[in-house]
Amino acid sequence: LFIGLGAVCVLMMSFCKDEWFRLHQQRFVVYNTSKCNHIERVHGCHYVVLNTDTSMQKKTDYAVKPAHINWRAWEKDSSGAKEIFDVCGKTVLLLNRDFSSESHFPVDYLVINQTAGIDLGKLQKIFSPSLIIIGNNYSRRQQEKFVKVCVTAGIAVHSISKDGAFVLN
Description:
It is a single chain. It is built from five helices and ten strands; from the N terminus they run H-E-E-E-H-E-E-E-E-H-E-H-E-H-E. Strand 2 (36-43) and strand 3 form a beta hairpin. The protein has a five-stranded mixed sheet with strand order 4-3-2-1-10. The protein is of the alpha/beta class. The longest helix is centred in the first third of the chain and has 22 residues, at 2-23.
């Protein structure tokens, strides 16, 4: 009887620990999905889609659903998608459009989600990110060119098509 009660207590504590980790999880994910960006923020048992291409839904679901199952984040949060947010104490900026500012606004991670021309010097001067993430909305040739420029400038870069999905947790 005592051994059985002890085993049940250990099992219940294990279940509670797993649930606590699930409810307190925070993740930022840029998926590697064909020629579009699918970007999500996972918090607790909810996920928020920050950017997606609805015409590629089957390919996106192929990559996204297993991640939701693994992280136990099945509920879609319909709150508005923000361009800047905090994940595990790190600032993430989702750059969806060109900007015109001269003030300094430091971020930890900069996700380039626009297709217009990018001035790397201006990005580094204004945002000074520790890592730049470039997604699949650029062609492979454009991504390789951007990575070369970043490497020669000494800037850390993560190319989704070359390095795979980016997960910040």
